Q: What sequence folds into this?
């Protein structure tokens, strides 16, 4: 499929989803137009709302890029959820226990640590895949649970702060990512996210290693014939994917929460799958679809507050978008039927 | 009487004509060859005749009666039968069972196996097929399996047989046997259409020939009134040269590629056994053999994709101990057997595929970066030099025609690594025009001193290009001689393992 055609398909998917969601909202006795206008103004209506939208998108950009980095090499990394946690906790710990260094050192140090921890955790899956020839899908799903309970243990016992809430101690001020618009989720992490979007594109399209990774991702045998080591590339790609996820976890700790809190990131990793698919596993596409998902999610919480329409309808809309985008077959089938009718007529 | 009569047949796919106003008629009891390059519209026309496609317009008559064929079922009812290039058979059932599947004769509620076997046996005897009706398909050779398909057609009382590239998978002795069978069928007043692009065979077997080019009928002629050059010109649309000119072969030229005692075992089964070959500068060594006799494995060993279990490979006089693909690419230019699988990456643009395997060279960028300007200009040069028909370096290789994909791969190989060349099926699925070009390029490299190891399932190609030929059978080299010292018959004899009658 050409790029233009892909874009058309995604737009059609989006429109279809909006239409079906409208029908569901109307069927449930609410006004779709009220719902959508509340959602749109909730997402973009004011500086505060817009900042909230972009802020909500930050972890989604990381998760989407992490997924796309694997997919470019033909890897389906469902372990992003776990890798986010494996990056978040070390960042929280380094953010609290390292003291007396300036922010220009402290922030990169925490980010780097999170990247390495997330990356190594993902690399473990690649090692198992290469050694035992098990699909990475299964390994990464399993490792999600291991990561979750490992981190939960650490935050419940060794690193638990004083008080009722299960969380770590607060990070030092020198490790905090500045909040750009007060009282919103929009923080300096967006700069890191945008930097990674550019770096992602540059790596895959302008470096020899990125070229090799894409070759591995599209055709293992042709890559092998060309002297490219697929095993090595799978490990590199997994590490990169996990590192991006880990950075996402660190940014959530350093820019939003200020500490690691139990059950902090539930679901980002899985949204990342949908975001990367919708973004065609490309840097800009992933950025765009992360922003869309951010807008939907920020819009739905605002809709919850300003109308009596439940925000869950937006979750329905999100789910519909995912279904249509990830199964181009549906739209292709519709297209076929239309074409056949034309021929018959 | 015309067995088949098709007039003004047109069929287009997405606005491009696959068949345009085609006229095609076959007399009853003749062998008619439908000749044309890949994409000329032969298969589309036959699929229309067999009810698999519906034509946009046109008229079809079978045995002078106008018919509407909406499905293969209709076609069979009119006495048509098609033998496909890749046949679908149930491996662990017998010949008879495969033939009767779908319309089993019954006695009461039971299968009338005896009766079916009897009928199949009668057919085999009548047409001299030399086949055991009780034999399981898995024990048969490709040639014998093809016989089963033809038998199936006869069992269904077909009077018109359509054969799609029937000789593509056969060895020379099997081809002569097939032709003998077809002549027998003709004597029984069966009508036969052979779809092919092989000129020599057409001239040998057909009574009349219809040539298609770019979806249109070019002409129909009697075999008596034509010859190979004329047919090729009609097929391609311009004069085609069959001659390859070559400089004299020098037996004292330095050996560039040497295999000594290569063997390969897989799951305790010997796939390659004690293969020793030498390829000298300025020669083409052709490997002849029926597909599946270890050629693919030998290619994989030489290119480092698979590690041999015994023996050594030497390039330029140096024994290579760690044969990885990366290492071997430094010595051997590899034109892979299946271009879609190993030759290029789907989704990659031409410029990306052009450097595949050579992308780490410093000319294409240092410090791990890709020098896009340099890569694109070199790829552009290659596209021009090797006549790759494409909209440019940014078009994806998978959207090119087979011939142009192959030209890109060959250009890539010859421009980067041409001292030793391993060319596997260099012209498979490629048009005559491109074949002519590829052969000339390989010959040019040979004359300039390249050592070329050629693997091809097309025996004519091996004979035409090679200075020497080695015949492989079940992973062993059966015989190795200078090309002129082999007769076609001898080659066929060794390709089948050196059994059966030899002069």
A:
């Amino acid at each position: 499929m050409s790029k233009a055609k892909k874009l058309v398909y995604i737009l059609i998917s989006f429109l279809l989803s909006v239409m079906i969601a409208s029908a569901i909202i109307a069927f449930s006795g609410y006004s779709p137009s009220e719902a959508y206008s509340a959602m749109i103004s909730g997402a973009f209506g004011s500086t505060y709302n817009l900042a909230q939208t972009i802020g909500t998108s930050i972890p989604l950009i990381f998760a989407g890029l992490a997924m796309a980095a694997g997919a470019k090499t033909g890897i389906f990394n469902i372990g992003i959820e776990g890798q986010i946690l494996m990056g978040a906790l070390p960042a929280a710990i380094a953010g609290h226990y390292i003291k007396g260094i300036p922010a220009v050192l402290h922030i990169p140090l925490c980010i780097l640590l999170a990247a390495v921890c997330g990356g190594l955790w993902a690399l473990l899956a690649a090692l198992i895949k290469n050694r035992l020839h098990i699909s990475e899908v299964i390994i990464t799903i399993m490792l999600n649970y291991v990561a979750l309970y490992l981190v939960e243990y650490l935050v419940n016992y060794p690193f638990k702060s004083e008080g009722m809430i299960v969380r770590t101690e607060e990070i030092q001020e020198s490790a905090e990512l500045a909040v750009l618009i007060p009282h919103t989720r929009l923080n300096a992490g967006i700069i890191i996210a945008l930097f990674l979007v550019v770096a992602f594109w540059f790596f895959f399209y302008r470096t020899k290693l990125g070229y090799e990774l894409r070759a591995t991702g599209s055709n293992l045998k042709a890559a092998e014939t060309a002297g490219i080591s697929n095993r090595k590339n799978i490990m590199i790609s997994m590490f990169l994917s996990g590192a991006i996820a880990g950075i996402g976890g660190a940014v959530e700790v350093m820019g939003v929460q200020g500490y690691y809190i139990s059950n902090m990131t539930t679901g980002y990793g899985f949204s990342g799958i949908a975001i990367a698919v919708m973004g065609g596993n490309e840097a800009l596409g992933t950025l765009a679809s992360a922003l869309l998902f951010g807008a939907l999610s920020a819009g739905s919480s605002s809709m919850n507050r300003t109308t009596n329409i439940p925000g869950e309808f937006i979750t329905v809309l999100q789910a519909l978008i995912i279904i249509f985008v990830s199964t181009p077959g549906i739209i292709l089938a519709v297209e076929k039927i239309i074409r056949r009718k034309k021929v018959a007529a | 009487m015309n067995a088949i009569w098709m007039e003004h047949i047109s069929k287009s796919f997405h606005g491009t004509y696959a068949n345009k106003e085609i006229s095609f008629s076959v007399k009853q009891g003749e062998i008619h060859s439908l000749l044309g390059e890949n994409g000329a519209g032969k298969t589309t026309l036959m699929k229309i005749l067999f009810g698999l496609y519906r034509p946009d317009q046109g008229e079809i008559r079978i045995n002078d009666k106008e018919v509407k064929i909406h499905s293969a079922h209709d076609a069979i009812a009119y006495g048509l039968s098609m033998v496909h290039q890749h046949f679908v058979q149930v491996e662990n059932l017998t010949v008879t069972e495969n033939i009767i599947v779908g319309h089993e004769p019954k006695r009461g509620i039971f299968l009338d196996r005896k009766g079916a076997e009897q009928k199949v046996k009668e057919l085999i005897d009548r047409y001299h097929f030399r086949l055991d009706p009780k034999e399981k398909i898995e024990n048969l050779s490709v040639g014998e399996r093809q016989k089963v398909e033809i038998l199936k057609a006869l069992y269904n009382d077909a009077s018109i047989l359509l054969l799609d590239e029937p000789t593509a998978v056969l060895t020379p002795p099997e081809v002569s046997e097939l032709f003998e069978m077809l002549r027998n069928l003709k004597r029984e007043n069966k009508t036969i259409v052979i779809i092919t692009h092989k000129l020599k065979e057409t001239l040998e077997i057909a009574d009349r020939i219809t040539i298609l080019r770019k979806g249109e009928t070019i002409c129909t002629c009697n075999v008596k009134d034509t010859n190979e050059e004329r047919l090729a010109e009609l097929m391609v649309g311009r004069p085609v040269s069959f001659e390859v000119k070559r400089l004299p072969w020098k037996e004292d030229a330095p050996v560039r590629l040497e295999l000594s005692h290569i063997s390969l075992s897989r799951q305790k089964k010997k796939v390659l056994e004690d293969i020793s070959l030498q390829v000298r500068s300025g020669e083409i060594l052709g490997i002849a053999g029926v597909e599946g006799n270890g050629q693919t494995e030998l290619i994989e060993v030489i290119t480092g994709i698979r590690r041999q279990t015994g023996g050594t490979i030497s390039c330029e006089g140096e024994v290579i101990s760690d044969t990885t693909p990366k290492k071997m690419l430094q010595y051997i230019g590899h034109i892979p057997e299946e271009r879609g699988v190993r030759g290029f990456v789907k989704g990659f643009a031409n410029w990306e595929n052009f450097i595949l395997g050579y992308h780490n060279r410093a000319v294409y960028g240092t410090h791990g970066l890709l020098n896009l300007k340099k890569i694109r200009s070199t790829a552009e040069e290659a596209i021009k030099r090797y006549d790759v028909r494409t909209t440019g370096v940014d078009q994806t290789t998978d959207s090119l025609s087979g011939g142009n994909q192959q030209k890109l791969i060959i250009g890539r190989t010859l421009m980067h690594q041409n001292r030793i060349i391993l060319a596997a099926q260099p012209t498979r699925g490629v048009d005559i025009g491109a074949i002519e070009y590829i052969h000339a390029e390989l010959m040019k490299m040979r004359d300039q001193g390249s050592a070329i190891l050629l693997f091809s399932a097309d025996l004519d190609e091996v004979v035409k290009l090679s200075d020497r030929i080695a015949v492989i059978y079940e992973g062993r080299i059966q015989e190795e001689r200078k090309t002129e010292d082999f007769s076609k018959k001898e080659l066929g004899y060794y390709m089948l393992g050196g059994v059966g009658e030899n002069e």
